[in-house]
From TrEMBL:
Keyword Hydrolase: yes
One GO MF term attached to the UniProt entry: hydrolase activity
CDD domains documented for this protein: cysteine_hydrolases (cd00431)
Full protein name: Isochorismatase
């Protein structure tokens, strides 16, 4: 029997603002987190936070070096905080990453393996960044995978749609928050 965890990834103040996430999106994530907690499924938040000055960001990394240059997602900045509409509760876990994937530059794999978790339910912003990179890495690590389609958001609707309809179904079960909650 699979032991699952729900990942809420990059649902941070600045990212929610950039992606123009609405109240309905945040309410769906909160509903998924509440359902997971009620079912005894761990809720793990993954946040990106870069060190001041970017000592661990190569200038060859276009995306991250631009973030450091612009002073975005720096440790301690209020924009890196998890959005209050989906804030962690006691017992939830928060993992900090330094790259796009939830696994890169974090201790996520250690946390999952320590709890014998072998199946992940993915949500987050952006579909074409943290969700895509985490999904690919988790598939390579042999995790069972589910993606909550309406628990993902991307500023580019074409990228979002392509990933959810064409790529993700090859690697994971793709469903909605409501349908997933009904299975718990």
């Amino acid at each position: 029997m699979a032991k699952s965890a729900l990942l809420l990834m990059d649902v941070q103040r600045s990212i929610v603002d950039i992606a123009e996430a609405d109240a309905a999106y945040l309410a769906r994530l909160a509903r998924a987190a509440d359902a997971a907690r009620s079912a005894g499924i761990p809720v793990i938040y993954v946040v990106i936070a870069l060190r001041p000055g970017g000592p661990d960001v190569s200038p060859r990394n276009k995306v991250l070096s631009a973030l450091v240059r612009d002073g975005l997602f720096i440790e301690g900045d209020p924009g890196t905080e998890i959005h209050p509409d989906v804030a962690p509760r006691p017992g939830d876990i928060v993992v900090t990453k330094r790259r796009a994937s939830a696994f890169s530059g974090s201790d996520l794999d250690l946390v999952l393996r320590s709890r014998d978790i072998d199946s992940l339910v993915l949500t987050g912003i952006a579909t074409g960044a943290v969700v895509l990179t985490t999904l690919c890495q988790a598939a390579d690590l042999d995790f069972g995978l589910t993606v909550l389609a309406d628990g993902c958001l991307d500023p580019d609707s074409d990228v979002h749609r392509f990933l959810l309809e064409k790529l993700f179904p090859r690697l994971a079960d793709v469903t909605t928050v409501d349908d997933w909650c009904r299975t718990l």
